[in-house]
Design brief:
single chain, 156 residues, 5 strands, 50% helix, elongated
Length: 156
Amino acid sequence: MKYARLTQQQLEELQPEFINFLATQSITAEEWGTLKKEKPEVSEEELDVFSDLIWEGVLSKVEYLENVSELQMHLFHLTDKEMKLLSVKVMNPEIDLRTTVGFNWFKRNFQSDFVEYLTASKAYSEDKNLDKFNLIKQGATITKGDLYKWFDQIIE
């Protein structure tokens, strides 16, 4: 397995897609039930293959990721050629950017001496989607990039 198995909830939400996937493998609903009972390792392998296919599709479309902690924000723009990072660090230990109060403080004070910015870019490795997946495994979430775009305009 290249990525991670989808959760039970994700699999349930993708049930029509999973049924189509099984159909492309010439596996009927009845055969699937038999596989799960008699050859659980084969059914597990099918779930892994399906999960990887879904991840590939999702990751190939991801353009923006965000990883926000108490005092830092790592905002990624994933272009065709490279990963661009806007990093924000707050030097006020009383602030938690994950809360409404903390983020509102940040919006009022983003130009103060209590906030540092860093930009960087990095080329992808051999596997662009795996690079994206690793950022997600480290806590990043897929976004539409509104925060990244806002910062990008400020920094220019």
